[in-house]
Task: inverse folding
């Protein structure tokens, strides 16, 4: 195969990969922006605010250790949603349920249908667990938004590297002699007759 043909093929593949990486990076960036904005807008609509610094709601060490960093702020990100779900709602649900899960409380309530206090407790824990689940979904989508942002940056960096390699391929193509061969086996030399 002629070296110039190989260089032309390699350069064309490099150019196509550059375009593919740029398109992938653009789509990943769009996905990141869309996801992040959607999580933000959905959480903003709920108007959830972290308790103010030093408030009685942050007195519990199981809560304050995680919520103090967001004290007084509105809950707007997936990371904040995780903290609220796992270190605010979950702590209160443990207190309400006496350490029992919704499934345990529900089973106890079904075994004692006349116990109105237990039925009320089950309802409250169910609502809290539902809210926790919704907030943890926002956290999951917020994390997906962050990961797609990182992937888009990586794709753009790879595209830049591939574009550089493609440019070097074009420069090399121009320098190579048209007759130069690559990947060809050397011709066998004819044996030299030996005089006896």
Result:
């Amino acid at each position: 195969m002629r070296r110039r043909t190989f260089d032309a093929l390699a350069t064309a593949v490099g150019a196509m990969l550059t375009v593919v990486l740029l398109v992938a990076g653009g789509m990943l960036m769009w996905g990141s922006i869309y996801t992040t904005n959607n999580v933000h807008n959905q959480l903003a609509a709920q108007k959830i605010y972290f308790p103010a610094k030093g408030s009685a709601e942050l007195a519990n060490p199981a809560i304050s250790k995680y919520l103090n960093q967001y004290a007084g702020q509105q809950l707007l990100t997936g990371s904040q949603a995780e903290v609220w779900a796992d270190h605010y709602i979950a702590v209160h649900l443990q207190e309400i349920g006496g350490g029992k899960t919704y499934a345990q409380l529900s089973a106890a309530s079904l075994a004692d249908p006349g116990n109105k206090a237990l039925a009320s407790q089950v309802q409250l824990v169910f609502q809290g667990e539902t809210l926790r689940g919704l907030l943890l979904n926002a956290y999951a989508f917020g994390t997906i938004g962050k990961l797609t942002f990182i992937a888009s940056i990586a794709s753009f960096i790879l595209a830049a590297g591939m574009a550089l390699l493609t440019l070097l391929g074009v420069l090399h193509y121009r320098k190579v002699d048209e007759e130069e061969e690559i990947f060809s086996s050397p011709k066998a030399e004819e044996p030299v007759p030996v005089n006896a």
In short: The chain has one domain: 3-175. Residues 81 and 188 are 74 Å apart (CA to CA). The chain has a mean pLDDT of 90.
